Amino acid sequence: MPFYHKLGEIPHKRHTIFRKSNGELYYEQLFGTIGFDGMSTNMYHVHRPTQVKNILGKKDVAPRVSIKNNIQSYRLHGFKIKPEHDYLDSRKPVLTNSDCTIILAAPKESTASYFYKNADADEMIFIHRGSGKLRSHLGNLDFKYGDYLIIPRGTIYKIDFDTEDNRLFIVESHRPIYTPKRYRNWFGQLLEHAPFCERDIRRPYELETNDEKGSFLMKIKKQNELFDMEYATHPFDVVGYDGFNYPYALSIHDFEPITGRVHQPPPVHQTFETDAFVVCSFVPRLYDYHPQAIPAPYNHSNIDSDEVLYYVDGDFMSRNDIDAGHISLHPAGIPHGPHPGAAERSIGKEKTDELAVMVDTFKPLQLTEEAMAIADDSYYQSWLED
Ligand SMILES: [Fe+2]
Q1: Which residue numbers delimit the Homogentisate 1,2-dioxygenase C-terminal domain (predicted)?
Q2: Which residues contact 280 (CB under 8 A, 6 or more apart)?
Q3: Catalytic pick from 77, 174, 253, 263?
Q4: In principle, which of 136, 224, 225, 383 could form an S-S bond with 157, CB 3.0–4.6 Å?
Protein backbone atom coordinates (compact mmCIF):
# COMPACT_ATOMS: atom_id res chain seq x y z
CA MET A 1 0.00 0.00 0.00
CA PRO A 2 1.60 3.31 -0.98
CA PHE A 3 1.68 4.90 2.40
CA TYR A 4 3.87 4.43 5.39
CA HIS A 5 2.78 2.33 8.36
CA LYS A 6 4.55 1.40 11.57
CA LEU A 7 3.49 -1.14 14.17
CA GLY A 8 5.30 -2.35 17.28
CA GLU A 9 8.87 -1.57 18.27
CA ILE A 10 11.66 -0.81 15.78
CA PRO A 11 15.16 0.65 16.17
CA HIS A 12 15.88 4.27 15.27
CA LYS A 13 17.96 3.32 12.19
CA ARG A 14 17.59 0.50 9.66
CA HIS A 15 20.15 -2.29 9.77
CA THR A 16 21.52 -1.36 13.19
CA ILE A 17 21.77 -3.15 16.54
CA PHE A 18 18.35 -3.93 18.04
CA ARG A 19 18.42 -6.15 21.13
CA LYS A 20 15.88 -8.10 23.14
CA SER A 21 15.73 -7.58 26.91
CA ASN A 22 18.02 -10.62 27.34
CA GLY A 23 20.69 -9.00 25.18
CA GLU A 24 20.21 -11.14 22.06
CA LEU A 25 19.68 -9.51 18.69
CA TYR A 26 16.30 -9.37 16.97
CA TYR A 27 16.38 -10.81 13.42
CA GLU A 28 15.73 -8.22 10.73
CA GLN A 29 13.94 -9.15 7.48
CA LEU A 30 13.15 -7.00 4.44
CA PHE A 31 9.81 -8.12 3.00
CA GLY A 32 9.40 -6.64 -0.48
CA THR A 33 8.05 -7.17 -3.98
CA ILE A 34 9.50 -6.62 -7.47
CA GLY A 35 13.02 -7.29 -6.31
CA PHE A 36 14.12 -4.28 -4.29
CA ASP A 37 12.08 -1.88 -6.48
CA GLY A 38 8.53 -2.45 -5.22
CA MET A 39 6.91 -1.74 -1.90
CA SER A 40 8.70 -3.21 1.09
CA THR A 41 8.47 -3.57 4.83
CA ASN A 42 11.32 -3.92 7.27
CA MET A 43 10.49 -6.20 10.20
CA TYR A 44 12.12 -7.63 13.29
CA HIS A 45 11.64 -11.26 14.38
CA VAL A 46 12.19 -12.80 17.78
CA HIS A 47 13.66 -15.86 16.02
CA ARG A 48 15.33 -16.46 12.67
CA PRO A 49 12.51 -16.63 10.08
CA THR A 50 14.46 -19.25 8.11
CA GLN A 51 14.17 -22.28 10.40
CA VAL A 52 12.61 -24.93 8.17
CA LYS A 53 12.47 -28.28 9.98
CA ASN A 54 10.91 -30.44 7.27
CA ILE A 55 9.24 -30.28 3.90
CA LEU A 56 6.38 -32.66 4.50
CA GLY A 57 4.77 -32.97 1.08
CA LYS A 58 2.87 -31.16 -1.61
CA LYS A 59 -0.52 -31.19 -3.29
CA ASP A 60 -1.54 -30.14 -6.80
CA VAL A 61 -4.06 -27.29 -6.56
CA ALA A 62 -3.99 -26.13 -10.20
CA PRO A 63 -7.35 -25.01 -11.59
CA ARG A 64 -8.91 -27.87 -13.57
CA VAL A 65 -9.70 -26.17 -16.88
CA SER A 66 -12.82 -27.35 -18.70
CA ILE A 67 -13.26 -24.68 -21.40
CA LYS A 68 -9.94 -23.39 -22.72
CA ASN A 69 -10.97 -21.10 -25.56
CA ASN A 70 -14.26 -19.38 -24.87
CA ILE A 71 -16.51 -16.97 -26.75
CA GLN A 72 -19.75 -17.83 -24.92
CA SER A 73 -21.35 -15.61 -22.27
CA TYR A 74 -22.07 -17.51 -19.06
CA ARG A 75 -23.90 -17.04 -15.81
CA LEU A 76 -22.53 -18.92 -12.81
CA HIS A 77 -24.62 -19.62 -9.70
CA GLY A 78 -21.96 -18.80 -7.13
CA PHE A 79 -23.97 -19.79 -4.06
CA LYS A 80 -24.19 -23.35 -5.44
CA ILE A 81 -20.54 -23.75 -4.40
CA LYS A 82 -20.85 -26.02 -1.38
CA PRO A 83 -19.57 -24.90 2.03
CA GLU A 84 -16.55 -26.84 3.26
CA HIS A 85 -14.93 -26.97 6.67
CA ASP A 86 -11.36 -26.10 5.71
CA TYR A 87 -10.49 -22.64 4.34
CA LEU A 88 -8.06 -23.83 1.64
CA ASP A 89 -10.21 -26.81 0.60
CA SER A 90 -13.19 -24.47 0.26
CA ARG A 91 -11.47 -22.28 -2.35
CA LYS A 92 -12.84 -23.29 -5.78
CA PRO A 93 -11.20 -21.70 -8.83
CA VAL A 94 -13.88 -20.90 -11.42
CA LEU A 95 -12.13 -18.65 -13.95
CA THR A 96 -8.43 -18.49 -14.71
CA ASN A 97 -5.70 -17.23 -17.02
CA SER A 98 -1.96 -16.80 -16.71
CA ASP A 99 -2.38 -13.49 -14.81
CA CYS A 100 -5.09 -14.28 -12.30
CA THR A 101 -7.53 -16.84 -10.92
CA ILE A 102 -11.02 -16.04 -9.71
CA ILE A 103 -12.14 -18.21 -6.81
CA LEU A 104 -15.39 -18.75 -4.90
CA ALA A 105 -15.25 -20.05 -1.35
CA ALA A 106 -17.66 -20.87 1.45
CA PRO A 107 -15.40 -21.86 4.38
CA LYS A 108 -17.06 -22.97 7.62
CA GLU A 109 -14.04 -23.01 9.91
CA SER A 110 -11.18 -20.75 10.91
CA THR A 111 -7.66 -21.82 9.95
CA ALA A 112 -6.71 -23.36 13.29
CA SER A 113 -4.04 -25.93 12.54
CA TYR A 114 -1.86 -24.17 9.98
CA PHE A 115 -0.54 -20.90 8.63
CA TYR A 116 -0.99 -20.04 4.95
CA LYS A 117 1.17 -18.15 2.50
CA ASN A 118 0.54 -17.48 -1.18
CA ALA A 119 4.04 -17.12 -2.56
CA ASP A 120 2.95 -16.41 -6.14
CA ALA A 121 0.05 -14.03 -5.98
CA ASP A 122 -1.47 -11.06 -4.21
CA GLU A 123 -4.93 -11.98 -2.97
CA MET A 124 -8.03 -9.83 -3.02
CA ILE A 125 -10.71 -11.34 -0.79
CA PHE A 126 -14.15 -9.74 -1.02
CA ILE A 127 -16.32 -10.59 1.98
CA HIS A 128 -19.83 -11.26 0.71
CA ARG A 129 -20.98 -12.99 3.87
CA GLY A 130 -19.29 -13.38 7.21
CA SER A 131 -17.07 -11.48 9.57
CA GLY A 132 -13.98 -12.15 11.62
CA LYS A 133 -10.32 -11.35 11.88
CA LEU A 134 -7.49 -11.66 9.37
CA ARG A 135 -4.36 -12.48 11.39
CA SER A 136 -0.93 -12.08 9.83
CA HIS A 137 2.73 -11.75 10.73
CA LEU A 138 2.24 -8.04 9.99
CA GLY A 139 -0.70 -7.61 12.36
CA ASN A 140 -4.41 -8.21 12.51
CA LEU A 141 -7.40 -6.68 10.74
CA ASP A 142 -11.09 -7.06 11.52
CA PHE A 143 -13.34 -7.71 8.52
CA LYS A 144 -17.05 -7.82 7.80
CA TYR A 145 -19.58 -7.82 4.98
CA GLY A 146 -18.48 -5.61 2.08
CA ASP A 147 -14.77 -5.52 2.86
CA TYR A 148 -12.04 -5.97 0.31
CA LEU A 149 -8.98 -7.52 1.97
CA ILE A 150 -5.80 -6.95 -0.05
CA ILE A 151 -3.09 -9.40 1.01
CA PRO A 152 0.31 -8.93 -0.66
CA ARG A 153 2.10 -12.07 -1.88
CA GLY A 154 4.23 -13.67 0.79
CA THR A 155 2.07 -12.55 3.70
CA ILE A 156 1.72 -15.38 6.25
CA TYR A 157 -1.87 -15.41 7.46
CA LYS A 158 -4.74 -17.16 9.21
CA ILE A 159 -8.43 -16.29 9.07
CA ASP A 160 -10.72 -16.45 12.09
CA PHE A 161 -14.41 -16.48 11.15
CA ASP A 162 -17.12 -15.50 13.64
CA THR A 163 -19.66 -18.03 12.29
CA GLU A 164 -19.91 -20.90 9.77
CA ASP A 165 -21.82 -18.81 7.20
CA ASN A 166 -19.12 -17.28 5.01
CA ARG A 167 -19.07 -16.44 1.31
CA LEU A 168 -15.90 -15.11 -0.29
CA PHE A 169 -15.11 -13.84 -3.81
CA ILE A 170 -11.35 -14.08 -4.25
CA VAL A 171 -8.95 -12.97 -6.97
CA GLU A 172 -5.40 -14.30 -6.96
CA SER A 173 -3.21 -11.92 -8.95
CA HIS A 174 0.28 -12.64 -10.24
CA ARG A 175 0.69 -8.87 -10.70
CA PRO A 176 0.70 -6.55 -7.67
CA ILE A 177 -2.69 -5.03 -6.83
CA TYR A 178 -2.62 -1.23 -6.46
CA THR A 179 -5.07 1.62 -6.09
CA PRO A 180 -5.55 3.31 -9.50
CA LYS A 181 -2.54 5.42 -10.46
CA ARG A 182 -4.70 8.13 -12.00
CA TYR A 183 -6.18 8.80 -8.56
CA ARG A 184 -2.73 9.29 -6.97
CA ASN A 185 -0.40 12.29 -7.09
CA TRP A 186 3.35 12.04 -7.70
CA PHE A 187 3.89 11.23 -4.00
CA GLY A 188 1.29 8.43 -4.10
CA GLN A 189 -1.36 10.32 -2.10
CA LEU A 190 -4.93 9.71 -3.23
CA LEU A 191 -6.32 12.85 -4.89
CA GLU A 192 -9.43 14.84 -3.99
CA HIS A 193 -11.49 13.41 -6.88
CA ALA A 194 -10.67 9.80 -5.97
CA PRO A 195 -13.73 7.79 -4.84
CA PHE A 196 -11.97 6.86 -1.59
CA CYS A 197 -8.99 8.14 0.36
CA GLU A 198 -6.42 6.96 2.89
CA ARG A 199 -8.91 7.50 5.71
CA ASP A 200 -11.01 4.66 4.27
CA ILE A 201 -8.09 2.23 4.19
CA ARG A 202 -7.76 0.14 7.34
CA ARG A 203 -4.26 -0.97 8.24
CA PRO A 204 -3.22 -3.79 10.61
CA TYR A 205 -3.68 -2.51 14.15
CA GLU A 206 -2.75 -5.41 16.42
CA LEU A 207 0.57 -7.25 16.30
CA GLU A 208 0.84 -10.80 17.72
CA THR A 209 4.37 -11.47 18.91
CA ASN A 210 4.78 -15.14 19.85
CA ASP A 211 8.10 -16.22 21.33
CA GLU A 212 7.52 -19.94 20.76
CA LYS A 213 9.60 -22.83 19.51
CA GLY A 214 8.20 -26.18 18.44
CA SER A 215 6.49 -27.43 15.29
CA PHE A 216 4.46 -25.06 13.13
CA LEU A 217 2.77 -26.12 9.90
CA MET A 218 2.86 -23.60 7.07
CA LYS A 219 1.04 -24.28 3.80
CA ILE A 220 2.75 -22.37 0.99
CA LYS A 221 1.15 -22.00 -2.43
CA LYS A 222 3.71 -21.84 -5.20
CA GLN A 223 3.35 -22.65 -8.91
CA ASN A 224 -0.09 -24.19 -8.41
CA GLU A 225 1.12 -26.57 -5.71
CA LEU A 226 0.53 -26.40 -1.98
CA PHE A 227 3.66 -27.29 -0.01
CA ASP A 228 3.44 -28.36 3.63
CA MET A 229 6.44 -26.91 5.48
CA GLU A 230 7.25 -27.53 9.14
CA TYR A 231 8.89 -24.54 10.85
CA ALA A 232 10.70 -24.58 14.20
CA THR A 233 9.41 -21.18 15.39
CA HIS A 234 6.05 -19.46 15.51
CA PRO A 235 5.52 -17.57 12.21
CA PHE A 236 3.89 -14.66 14.07
CA ASP A 237 6.95 -13.54 16.04
CA VAL A 238 7.44 -10.01 14.70
CA VAL A 239 8.07 -7.43 17.42
CA GLY A 240 7.76 -4.45 15.08
CA TYR A 241 7.92 -3.29 11.46
CA ASP A 242 7.63 -0.27 9.25
CA GLY A 243 7.18 0.27 5.53
CA PHE A 244 4.66 0.16 2.74
CA ASN A 245 4.02 -3.57 2.18
CA TYR A 246 1.26 -4.94 4.42
CA PRO A 247 -2.31 -6.28 4.16
CA TYR A 248 -5.15 -3.78 4.35
CA ALA A 249 -8.93 -3.53 4.15
CA LEU A 250 -11.26 -1.21 2.22
CA SER A 251 -15.04 -1.46 2.52
CA ILE A 252 -17.10 -1.30 -0.68
CA HIS A 253 -19.51 0.77 1.43
CA ASP A 254 -16.80 3.47 1.72
CA PHE A 255 -16.52 3.76 -2.09
CA GLU A 256 -18.11 7.09 -3.07
CA PRO A 257 -19.82 6.78 -6.47
CA ILE A 258 -19.07 9.22 -9.27
CA THR A 259 -22.26 10.18 -11.12
CA GLY A 260 -23.15 12.47 -14.04
CA ARG A 261 -25.95 13.92 -16.15
CA VAL A 262 -25.60 11.03 -18.58
CA HIS A 263 -24.40 7.44 -18.16
CA GLN A 264 -20.86 7.25 -16.78
CA PRO A 265 -18.56 4.55 -18.18
CA PRO A 266 -17.24 1.69 -16.02
CA PRO A 267 -13.85 3.33 -15.22
CA VAL A 268 -15.66 5.68 -12.76
CA HIS A 269 -16.26 2.56 -10.66
CA GLN A 270 -12.61 1.51 -10.65
CA THR A 271 -11.24 0.58 -7.24
CA PHE A 272 -8.03 -1.36 -7.88
CA GLU A 273 -5.67 -1.90 -10.79
CA THR A 274 -2.97 -4.26 -11.93
CA ASP A 275 -1.34 -4.31 -15.34
CA ALA A 276 -3.42 -7.42 -16.17
CA PHE A 277 -6.93 -6.57 -14.88
CA VAL A 278 -8.98 -3.92 -13.10
CA VAL A 279 -11.47 -4.20 -10.22
CA CYS A 280 -14.56 -1.95 -10.10
CA SER A 281 -17.20 -1.41 -7.40
CA PHE A 282 -20.83 -0.80 -8.41
CA VAL A 283 -22.47 0.79 -5.38
CA PRO A 284 -25.84 2.38 -4.51
CA ARG A 285 -26.01 5.78 -6.22
CA LEU A 286 -28.22 8.39 -7.79
CA TYR A 287 -28.93 7.81 -11.47
CA ASP A 288 -28.03 10.16 -14.30
CA TYR A 289 -29.91 13.45 -14.05
CA HIS A 290 -30.15 14.69 -17.67
CA PRO A 291 -33.93 14.88 -18.31
CA GLN A 292 -33.56 12.57 -21.33
CA ALA A 293 -30.99 10.23 -19.73
CA ILE A 294 -31.18 6.45 -20.08
CA PRO A 295 -29.60 5.21 -16.83
CA ALA A 296 -29.10 1.60 -17.98
CA PRO A 297 -25.82 0.96 -19.78
CA TYR A 298 -25.62 0.96 -23.57
CA ASN A 299 -24.46 -2.11 -25.49
CA HIS A 300 -20.71 -2.20 -25.51
CA SER A 301 -17.90 -4.26 -27.01
CA ASN A 302 -15.27 -5.23 -24.54
CA ILE A 303 -13.38 -6.34 -27.61
CA ASP A 304 -10.12 -6.95 -25.80
CA SER A 305 -11.09 -7.79 -22.23
CA ASP A 306 -13.21 -10.42 -20.50
CA GLU A 307 -15.76 -8.91 -18.11
CA VAL A 308 -16.68 -10.68 -14.88
CA LEU A 309 -19.42 -9.24 -12.70
CA TYR A 310 -20.02 -10.65 -9.24
CA TYR A 311 -23.44 -9.64 -7.95
CA VAL A 312 -23.52 -8.89 -4.25
CA ASP A 313 -26.83 -7.29 -3.37
CA GLY A 314 -29.70 -5.12 -4.56
CA ASP A 315 -31.59 -5.12 -7.82
CA PHE A 316 -29.12 -5.04 -10.68
CA MET A 317 -30.34 -2.51 -13.23
CA SER A 318 -29.20 -4.12 -16.45
CA ARG A 319 -30.75 -7.56 -16.05
CA ASN A 320 -33.97 -9.26 -14.99
CA ASP A 321 -32.54 -12.59 -13.89
CA ILE A 322 -29.61 -11.94 -11.59
CA ASP A 323 -29.40 -12.80 -7.89
CA ALA A 324 -26.84 -12.36 -5.14
CA GLY A 325 -23.85 -14.65 -5.65
CA HIS A 326 -24.28 -14.88 -9.42
CA ILE A 327 -21.35 -14.25 -11.75
CA SER A 328 -21.81 -13.12 -15.33
CA LEU A 329 -18.95 -13.67 -17.78
CA HIS A 330 -19.06 -11.55 -20.93
CA PRO A 331 -16.04 -12.59 -22.98
CA ALA A 332 -13.84 -10.48 -25.21
CA GLY A 333 -14.67 -10.39 -28.90
CA ILE A 334 -18.44 -9.91 -28.81
CA PRO A 335 -20.72 -7.08 -27.62
CA HIS A 336 -23.04 -7.35 -24.66
CA GLY A 337 -25.60 -5.05 -23.15
CA PRO A 338 -28.70 -4.69 -21.02
CA HIS A 339 -31.35 -7.36 -20.96
CA PRO A 340 -34.36 -6.69 -23.26
CA GLY A 341 -36.60 -4.22 -21.44
CA ALA A 342 -33.96 -3.03 -18.98
CA ALA A 343 -33.15 0.23 -20.82
CA GLU A 344 -36.84 1.21 -21.06
CA ARG A 345 -37.43 0.25 -17.44
CA SER A 346 -34.56 2.41 -16.24
CA ILE A 347 -35.90 5.66 -17.77
CA GLY A 348 -37.13 8.05 -15.09
CA LYS A 349 -35.64 6.01 -12.21
CA GLU A 350 -33.78 8.17 -9.71
CA LYS A 351 -31.45 5.77 -7.97
CA THR A 352 -30.19 2.22 -7.76
CA ASP A 353 -29.30 0.08 -4.75
CA GLU A 354 -27.15 -2.36 -6.74
CA LEU A 355 -23.95 -3.67 -5.22
CA ALA A 356 -21.50 -5.61 -7.39
CA VAL A 357 -17.80 -6.23 -7.97
CA MET A 358 -16.42 -6.28 -11.51
CA VAL A 359 -13.15 -7.80 -12.68
CA ASP A 360 -12.09 -7.01 -16.26
CA THR A 361 -9.15 -9.12 -17.42
CA PHE A 362 -7.03 -8.19 -20.42
CA LYS A 363 -6.31 -11.82 -21.31
CA PRO A 364 -9.18 -14.26 -21.95
CA LEU A 365 -10.40 -16.38 -19.04
CA GLN A 366 -10.76 -20.15 -19.06
CA LEU A 367 -13.66 -21.87 -17.28
CA THR A 368 -12.91 -24.63 -14.80
CA GLU A 369 -14.79 -27.84 -14.05
CA GLU A 370 -16.12 -26.17 -10.88
CA ALA A 371 -17.44 -23.30 -13.03
CA MET A 372 -19.19 -25.63 -15.49
CA ALA A 373 -20.88 -27.43 -12.59
CA ILE A 374 -22.64 -24.19 -11.61
CA ALA A 375 -23.00 -22.67 -15.11
CA ASP A 376 -26.22 -21.72 -16.84
CA ASP A 377 -25.60 -22.95 -20.36
CA SER A 378 -28.40 -21.01 -22.08
CA TYR A 379 -27.48 -17.59 -20.63
CA TYR A 380 -25.76 -16.60 -23.87
CA GLN A 381 -29.15 -16.67 -25.66
CA SER A 382 -30.85 -14.43 -23.08
CA TRP A 383 -30.74 -11.32 -25.26
CA LEU A 384 -32.93 -12.91 -27.98
CA GLU A 385 -36.17 -11.08 -28.64
CA ASP A 386 -39.34 -13.16 -28.77
FE1 LIG B 1 -20.18 -4.52 -19.53
Answers
A1: 277-383
A2: 266, 267, 269, 270, 271, 357, 358, 359, 360
A3: 263
A4: 136
